[in-house]
Amino acid sequence: MNKKLGDGTSRFADPPRIVSAASVVGPKEAEGPLGGSFDAEIEDEMFGQETWERAESAFTRRGIKLAAEKAGMEIGGADFIIGGDLLNQSIGTTFGARGLTRPLIGIYGACSTFGEGLGLGAMMIDGGFAGRVIVGASSHFCAAERQFRFPLSMGTQRPPTSTWTVTGHGAAVLASEGDGFPRITHFTAGVITDYGVTDANNMGGAMAPAAWDVIARHLRDTGRAPDYYDAIVTGDLGSVGSSLLLDLARGDGADLTGAHADCGVMIYDPEKQDTHAGGSGCACSAATFAAVFYPKLRTRKLNRLLFVPTGAMLSATSVQQGESIPCVAYAVAIENL
Questions:
Q1: What is the pTM of this model?
Q2: Which of 55, 240, 95, 84 is nearest to 163 (CA)?
């Protein structure tokens, strides 16, 4: 069997199973439209910690442990933990995994990190290098604002195109064995796209071209049409990026209207919660997948999902230097076989 298809798509010979998924979120997420669907809804965004960054690590630890518990295993049963976040040196993940005594593979794909992790974890399992892998990603609104934009104490006005970074963590356990679980059948790695957007408050506009690029390449490589999938779900384009994605697809003769959904659009109520264009952050796609889409796959309300987390690969330094925003997306095909 040829495991490589076209330009960057991996096809798995024995598709790895997703045997559990877990979500932990903060109070704003719990108050949104998906409230009650998450495994743990923490009332204090500080999570009892002294800093926002330590709070993010606490979300990470809780998410990893919950995913392992839901898979009926101890954390020690995982061969690897794969994870990442938005903070410098990925301290949300590395400090959160401190003391868990499992080999850690830290990754960075900005808000696309969870999709990247699912793909890499599936490669490891299908390649015979692991039997069980825990994949996770976290973000925290306050920590992200301080790092990428302005300290909250400045009271800076947010433009309509801005998104709200999700506070929380999402995780999944991938395994080589198990009956009745949805499987990762294909993984298409993204290429960096840059359409010259320089506004750090317009992440959706910057990321939409990366989303369509990886979706189009995935469809081309696999020979599938958009309607093969019950849903094509992007990670955090928000309302602005989602509209642009549909326009880009139409420009290439594809209609995603009926199948497309976006985690960033789903997780908040923009009117009641003043979140403008929607949600973003590594936890946006990770927590929403675990809370909404994984249960639908398990109950077979969905049987074919193309999951496409998106990431803006900017830094505080690149923004200050006037650089445009390079972006990436990853397409993960998850199917009930």
A1: 0.95
A2: 240
